[in-house]
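HUMAN:
Sorry, I am quite new to this. Are you able to go through these amino acid letters and fold codes? The numbers rather puzzle me.
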Amino acid sequence: MRTLLWNLTYAPARGDDVCVFAIGRDTTDEQAMLARTQQQEKLAAIGTLAAGLAHEIRNPLNGAQLTSPTSRARSRSRGPTPS
């Protein structure tokens, strides 16, 4: 289905007559391009959100990983834990 945008203009003619000028413009391609652009912007926003979320989740895990080997090394140097 095509989308047309019509512009109607009128002008007086002889006597009581009126001339009407109708100019139609096909806006189908423009509408499709606008829809694609909006979809791309939505996907870019979701990507940015996902990257930020992954960063926030990864930050505490890095701290835990960095301190984990140190904690294990300290516990090994103290000897076995009593049962």
